[in-house]
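As a warm-up, study this chain.
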Amino acid sequence: GETSCVRIAPSHDQLVLINPTGNAEEHSFAFDLVIDDSFTQEQVWQNVGVPILEKAFCGYNGTIFAYGQTGSGKTWSMQGAQDNEDLQGIIPRMNRNLFDRISIEKLSRPTVQFLVTVSYFEIYNEVIFDL
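Now compare it with the structure written out below.
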């Protein structure tokens, strides 16, 4: 059988690369969060999207950068399945929550104006596509 050369720490803040030749050589990399295939779309949203949305309402710009090899789940994490709310990705959840939050904010602060600007890019083979 095949053996994985990647291990994610139980705390989900560290990724360990293991030398597949079996010489026990390991290299560790620390991150704010390492998401594996056990995370649901809701967990990805709560851990990635919600903090960025909250900071946006404090006046900060937000960026979500999905990086990885072809087939690693970037599009799935960002878009998900549009016809199933439980399987929706970050973008549809962000859109829904952003405009719901703006509606709520406008009720309590009717003189405040909101400006929403969105850019959506794909970089493939070192070529940038404005989606």
